[in-house]
Amino acid sequence: MMYVKAFLVGGIICIIAQILIDKTKITPARILVTLVGLGVLSVAVGISDKLVQFAGAGFTTPIFGFGIALGNGVKKAIAEKGWLGALGGGLTATSIGIGAVIFLAVLIALFAKSKDKS
Amino acid sequence: MIRMGSTVIFDEPPVIESWASVAGNHEKKGPLGSYFDIAEEDTTFGHKTWEQSESAMQNMAFKTALEKTSFQADSIDYIFAGDLDNQCIASSFGLMSFNIPMVGLFGACSTMAEGIALSSLLLAGGAANHCAAVTSSHFCSAERQFRYPLEYGGQRPPTAQWTVTGAGATILSKSGQAVASGNPKIRAATIGRITQLGIKDINNMGGAMAPAAADTLTRFFQDTGKKPDDFDLIVTGDLGELGLSLTIQLLQAGGYDCSDRMNDCGCMVFDNKDKHYGSGGSGCGCSAIVLNSYILGQMLAGNLKNVLFIGTGALMSPTSTYQGEIIPAIAHLVHIGI
Amino acid sequence: MPSDQVNKVNSAQYKKMVEEQAPKSNIGKDCLMAFLFGGSLCVLGQIAFDIAKSAGLDKDLASAVSSISLITLAAILTAFNVFDDIGRIAGAGTLVPITGFANSVVASAMEFKTEGFVFGTSVKLFVIAGPVVVFGTVFSVIYGIILLILKAMVVDVGL
Fold first, then answer.
1. Domain CATH code at residue B219
2. Among residues A3, B49, B123, C124, which is most buried (max CB within 10 A)?
3. ipTM
4. Which of A25, A114, A118 sits opposite B151 (nearest CB)?
């Protein structure tokens, strides 16, 4: 059941983004930034846990989930470390993903290059 | 040379001595594929960077055009060359080895027409006997500079155009100095003005450039008193499907009906049905390879007698785009007649 | 403007013409593809999460494993030069999930290595993904500051 809900919720988030791309002049970068912001906001207003309980990866796999992780990270870090946690909590919580992306990117760039698309 | 309004009429018209085109893989598969002098499936042309590949295409295009004449490189007095890479490096590196005095141009996709117009002015003015106009674009070098990395998985809007991989070279001689005196000649040239009608969308170059094409064509008709019927083909490069249709409408609004004889290099170079290319081809190389293969070939064969060739360029940069500016556009016209 | 003198159409009329005549995206097909690809990637993320969880990891770490799985998938598809072909079909379906983030970073790394690993790859790594990281971080810090203020005002925010 969770898989069905993840599929539907994740799919619908992508449809909303697709409609914005096709129908408006809003650039994809702005749409992604907005989704991240909404993720943080969902933590701030206290609904993120309920959302994730409901559809799991349907909410965490889209870039919206990056926002949830940032928001939760800050909250947790402030509880544990006090005010400095406000600065580092978001990055700490998302550091595994960002670290993985940077490392993989540089590793791949050692071996692979862009293919001729012309 | 007679100046009428902003159009220069050449009473001793410079002669197109020879021409050559180098094209890439998609262009080879397109409807004009068999007309290009060189068409390679491997558009790296054996080089490590796309900028080197593009330089190599310019080098080959000029060399091939030169080989079709009886001249050595040192007979060419001036080269007019430009491209889309920042600071026109494809031209500088591609033409470095020839040791010919060079004038670098940036006219975006209007560069071919701009180079031919300037060459003609110099030849007709008596400052040179032989000139060359060379330009190129490469899909990969343009993508990485203006849009996204090649492996980025984004979609292109249907109004976007596809940068042509290709280079074209035209060698022109002063009237009386030409060996191939039966070749097509440059009868007139109209230098374009910076024109805009408020379009900002960088994914709609055709829409941004159509007013410039219409402006230059209208001025040419007004200056010379000629009518669209006087020409077998009025060809812009490169507005794409949308831009071509808009240009025709703008001209109609001004009282010039060109709809039955107008075409666009961006619509000719690729199969229009294939939405892979969006609204059509673009880039300096697009009008360069269409002119320096099919169009001049058809003129030499006698199938086309009078052609208006209008190079259209979008003169924005990534900086001006991010600063929210409109897209300034320009169109240079040359009247080629046999 | 000079163009208005020769062209008989003004900017406002012209913009309307362009808007009306511009070819439109096939939004039905685009949305269907976005739904199918986006949904499937979320299911993959859920499967990776469940496997990690059943291996004994806590919720946060399992979530990280789920992200890394999709990041690795996208990175490999990019390295083998096929992600862009998929993305052209899937649109927001691969862009919005974490796969789009990974692709934009890996593609930049590969593209700009011709300018060297220092000035090319490293400098341009976040040329596309930068805004997401920058704004995400800024949003989280703003949220943190708001939390601190509320806490100082002795509002119960669960801290």
1. 3.40.47.40
2. B123
3. 0.95
4. A114
